[in-house]
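Handoff note, outgoing to incoming analyst
You'll be picking up this chain. Sequence as last confirmed:
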Amino acid sequence: MLFTVDEIHSADRIELSQLAADVQHFIRDGLPIGLIFVGLPAAVSDLLNEGVATFLRRAERIDLHAAAINEVKRSYASTFRDAGINISDDLVQIAANATGGYPFLIQLIGYQLWRQAEINSLALGETHVAQALAAATRRHEMAVIEAALSTTSDKDKDFLLAMAQDDGPVVAGDIGKRLNAKSNVVANYRARLIASGLIEAPAYGKVDFAIPGLREYLRKTRGK
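Most recent structure output, in case you need it:
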């Protein structure tokens, strides 16, 4: 038997603790049972470090890295073809690009495209794909981006807003200039935000957003 708990950042910690304790008892009794927690990197780290259940600290942590866009496109194309859904190759490419290779968005955009196909006689045009992407974006912002930002400090958000001024990877030194912060302070923010899964280091001395849509969301909500 396998239990899976998704979006653990919004789950009740007391209930998670009880579930973990019960599963631990089942494991000790030699029963065939498994437990999977799924969530944002920061939420997973918090869960493992909070002492919800000691045995969870021995759990294997698996990071779902970005998938190649070409692989996403092939997966979408074959899935739609097998289901008899009519969609052009160009629109499949647009949908695949919109995922950014991000696992949650791959699932979410695929789901929204499927919904559109069901209500439009298994045919997806430009308008249908645009509606699917808009719906997926709204859900992604609420379930992932806002949840991830909810645990960041005001200073961390200032760092992210400074990053959002660029359209791609940002030199850490440039962020320091924008914030009028010393290099060691910038390094501390950088390390904390990488650990939380909000940003990544694609090249030496540079940082970029790790979550697709985060840059656009910050620009859209700046000052709110």
